[in-house]
Design brief:
This protein has helices spanning 13-32, 57-63, 69-84, 89-108, 113-134, 142-153, 163-176, 250-274, 287-295, 306-316, 369-392, 401-414, 421-432, 434-442, 447-461, 487-505; strands spanning 9-12, 42-45, 51-54, 178-179, 182-183, 188-194, 202-204, 206-209, 221-230, 278-281, 299-301, 320-321, 333-343, 346-352, 360-366, 395-397, 465-469, 472-476, 484-486, 509-512. It is α+β, with helices and mostly antiparallel strands. Strand 2 (42-45) and strand 3 (51-54) form a beta hairpin.
Length: 514
């Protein structure tokens, strides 16, 4: 009896578990060397020759052409970490891979996968308790937020800027959108522009739109601007039906031309008389209309994408209008200043102040595309973790200190767990050790020696991490050196890694259709 197609492939039992675990471990291993302030970068080249250089875990995993379904689960761990808290993607992926490695050893010792899953979940609960115990009791002020941002960006590509100087900009941006209802993270955007040193990176109190004026004669700057957003083509209307019109005389031709001119003048008059100083439209603007509006001193930007139009509307408070006859002053948005700047071959429109000031933009500069791309990723992660830390009000020590505390507490609690489940709980602690071990290896230190020293310092001092300062590597309290992470980053890493590892470990049958 044939139940499946003859072309189907089926892998069962230990072979299936081994294959899945091996795939997960391989993916985790691919990003392990990027961890920490001394982490290395990866160069990713796609089939079209495009190059990405980064040490951001989520970017690396998403750029890799991964087909194995179990390996894809590790990528999903990274994606989940990135979406929820914005950082810790490499930590989550590496932890998931090592949980799988420990599970593989237990399976070879005839520990059932269900027992491993139960032990891992119990260990994860203990890990969350350990994280709570490591939370700094001090209030999360601007100095701590700056430390969170700097810790997130240390070791990432920041061009000629230091992580410390960028951290100031990041904290200022997040504080700008901190409201009574919470942090409006979506109101902070990052705009990149090639053509200057990364030292030119700045915070703009408003938004930046990649557009140029519709006419060279239009003003390059408008202050105290009244802004209209249109979904209207300011040109001669054309019918949907393919039709031809016969003109038999000069008078008819002149009449047609006059009608066209009248229609275009009507558009220009309607816009000018509405009182709008600046117009953004998602459609095209006829050259004659643009010229007439330029003579009236109206600044117009045409052909905006829908996302840009939504961004301008959100930032300025303007309402999009689909019919020019419906345009009223109540539809206008406002900004203190709108001006255009030229950078090489690119023209940018800056919408600043007024209603637009509720949204801020980190204007990232860099000499090459690779530099600005990596800066954008680093700043994006820093913005996310600072927002997370500000909202939760909880930070924990970085530099591997929290992982040392987690492993220590799990081993302590494991002594009271009966049966083979104790083996799984202890294995979870061993897997967590991979984070400080990797940090040590990436600094050129012996991982085993460093792990022993970290454990001893933790036992005596209660908190110990691997601190990197220039060429010097020491074991000390990370809080004393400003190396801190949001507690939610650690929690999310533990939870997502545990979920992925247990899901993969439970699979004992893989059926693949050709």
């Amino acid at each position: 009896m044939f139940i499946m197609s003859e072309d189907s492939q089926r892998t069962q039992g230990r072979d299936a578990q081994s294959s899945n675990i091996m795939a997960g471990k391989a993916v985790a291993e691919s990003v392990r060397t990027t961890l920490g302030p001394r982490g290395m970068d990866k160069m990713l080249v796609d089939s079209g020759g495009d190059v990405v250089i980064t040490n951001d875990g989520a970017t690396i995993l998403n750029e890799m052409d991964i087909e194995h379904p179990a390996a894809q689960m590790i990528v999903e761990v990274s994606d989940s970490q990135e979406e929820e808290v914005g950082d810790g993607t490499t930590t989550a992926a590496v932890l998931a891979g090592n949980l799988l490695g420990e599970a593989e050893d237990l399976i070879e010792q005839d520990v059932h996968a269900t027992t491993i899953v139960e032990g891992y979940h119990e260990a994860a609960d203990i890990a969350l308790e350990a994280i709570a115990e490591q939370v700094n009791e001090a209030d999360v002020d601007d100095e701590i937020l700056r430390q969170v941002a700097e810790s997130s960006m240390t070791g990432k590509g920041t061009g000629g800027l230091t992580a410390a100087s960028l951290a100031e900009t990041v904290v200022e941006a997040i504080r700008h959108v901190d409201t009574d209802a919470g942090v409006a993270r979506d109101n902070v955007t990052v705009h990149t522009q090639i053509g200057a040193s990364s030292n030119a990176t700045e915070l703009v109190p408003g938004i930046i739109v990649d557009e140029e004026p519709a006419h060279d004669g239009m003003p390059s700057e408008v202050e105290d601007a009244s802004i209209a957003i249109l979904d209207v083509e300011l040109g001669v209307r054309t019918g949907d039906v393919d039709a031809e019109y016969a003109i038999d005389s000069i008078d008819q031709l002149n009449a047609a031309i006059d009608a066209e001119e009248g229609e275009l003048e009507g558009y220009a008059e309607t816009v000018a008389e509405s009182g709008a100083d600046v117009v953004f439209t998602t459609e095209d603007v006829n050259d004659r209309v643009a010229n007439a509006l330029a003579n009236e001193g109206v600044l117009v930007f045409e052909g905006l994408g829908d996302s840009d139009a939504r961004q301008v509307a959100s930032a300025t408070g303007a309402r999009r209008v689909g019919d020019l006859d419906d345009l009223e002053e109540s539809d206008f948005g406002s900004a203190d200043r709108i001006h255009t700047e030229t950078y090489g071959d690119d023209d940018l429109a800056f919408v600043e102040g007024g209603a637009a000031a509720e949204t801020v933009t980190v204007f990232v500069r860099g000499g090459t595309e690779h530099i600005v791309d990596e800066l954008e990723r680093a700043i994006g992660d820093a913005l996310d973790v600072v927002a997370t830390a500000l909202e939760s009000g909880e930070v924990v020590p970085g530099a591997g200190a929290t992982e040392i505390a987690i492993a220590d507490k799990i081993r302590e609690e494991a002594a009271g767990i009966e049966g083979r489940k104790q083996l799984a709980v202890t294995a979870f602690a061993d897997a967590v050790d991979i984070i400080p071990r990797t940090l040590a290896a990436n600094t050129g230190r012996d991982p085993i020696d460093v792990l022993v020293d970290l454990r001893a310092a933790h036992e005596s001092e209660g908190r110990a991490g691997l601190i990197t300062s220039g060429d010097e590597v020491t074991i000390d309290d990370p809080f004393e050196h400003g190396v801190v992470d949001p507690a939610d980053v650690k929690r999310e890493a533990v939870e997502s890694a545990t979920e992925a590892a247990t899901m993969i470990a439970r699979i004992d049958d893989v059926i693949a259709a050709e």
